[in-house]
Amino acid sequence: MEPIEGKILGKQVGYPQHYSPEILVAVPRHLNREIYQLNSSSLPFIGLDIWHAYELSFLTKKGLPVAGLLKMSYSAESEFLVESKSLKLYLNGFNMQAYGTNVTQGIEQILSIIEKDLSNLLKSKVQLAFFNDNIKDNNSDFSDYSLLENIPKIQQASFNHYSETPTLLFPDTTNTAKELKVATHLLRSNCKITHQPDWGSAFIHIKGNKLPDKVGLLQYLVSIRNENHFHEEICEMIYKRLWDTFSPEELMVSCIYTRRGGIDICPVRVSNNNLLPMTLCNINSLSERLLRQ
């Protein structure tokens, strides 16, 4: 039986020429969570899936094209996630459709339609914002994170695991610090269905009595290189491994993936709301673009 994720992914599908909500595909989150003993009724995290769609466009009723960036956010506690290729095709269905007698009215109408369709699909509240004028990047949520690959001793370390290897995670017994903020731009995994590579950056904030050895942490993140999962699933996998291994007081994992098909996906998982990256998680703000965006 074909998995629901493969309904559109990996197949030749014509671009819709008109509004086509039926093309959207909802993927149950539990399909992947069961692998990592994540029970949806008692998750060790809360969080959001933040999407940026850079190619949303439509016409006003006078034929004027409107184009901009759609920012979308919904809860990690939702039963479903939206499959990205189906969302791309759905948004392209608006390209030659007319909405509103002016730009402002058109934006209001199209956001109302998209919000309703996605909220119904995911059975969860979806927040949307549209940016089409004077887009300015705000301060980065991650400016005080140190890059793991820049640590001098990384150059002497060996990297030879490319399938997820949790045993690479171990405590740093030489460090008395209780908090760590680190990042890497070396995140790479593969699409669950097509196995095409997905590139990204990972940001980790962990606080507690046991902190990961930085070399081992990067070796672990590199070991994800041949894993076949959706972006959201990779983020939850990293979070769960760190949570189980180090039993932290606080934990935040953000994965900022590169744009594909005009869309980037930025899942965030945290142990409490105070750890949510403020700008990234604010639907009305745009974060400073990172290397992988």
In DSSP terms (H or I, runs of 4 or more residues), the helix count works out at 6
| Cα-atom radius of gyration | 20 Å
Main β-sheet description: 8 strands, mixed
CATH superfamily of the largest domain: GTP cyclohydrolase I, C-terminal domain/NADPH-dependent 7-cyano-7-deazaguanine reductase, N-terminal domain
- Could you give the count of β-strands? 10
CATH class of the largest domain: Alpha Beta
- pLDDT < 50 stretches: none
The CATH level-2 architecture of the largest domain is identified as 2-Layer Sandwich
Q: End-to-end span in angstroms?
A: 35 Å
Q: How much beta, percentage-wise?
A: 25-35%
Shape: elongated
Strand arrangement, largest sheet? Answer: 5-3-2-10-9-8-7-6
| Category by helix and strand content | alpha+beta
Kindly give the count of domains: 2
CATH fold annotation of the largest domain: GTP Cyclohydrolase I, domain 2
Specify the helix fraction band. 10-25%
What would your notes on this structure say?
The radius of gyration is 20 Å and the shape is elongated. It has helices spanning 30-33, 84-92, 103-122, 214-222, 231-246, 278-281; strands at residues 26-28, 46-59, 65-75, 80-82, 126-131, 146-147, 179-190, 197-207, 250-257, 263-270. It folds into 2 domains: 4-131, GTP cyclohydrolase I, C-terminal domain/NADPH-dependent 7-cyano-7-deazaguanine reductase, N-terminal domain (GTP Cyclohydrolase I, domain 2, 2-Layer Sandwich); 146-281, GTP Cyclohydrolase I, domain 2 (2-Layer Sandwich), CATH 3.30.1130. The strands form 2 sheets. The chain has an 8-stranded mixed beta sheet, with helices on one face. The chain has a two-stranded antiparallel ribbon with strand order 1-4. The chain has 293 residues and is α+β, with helices and mostly antiparallel strands. It has 6 helices and 10 strands.
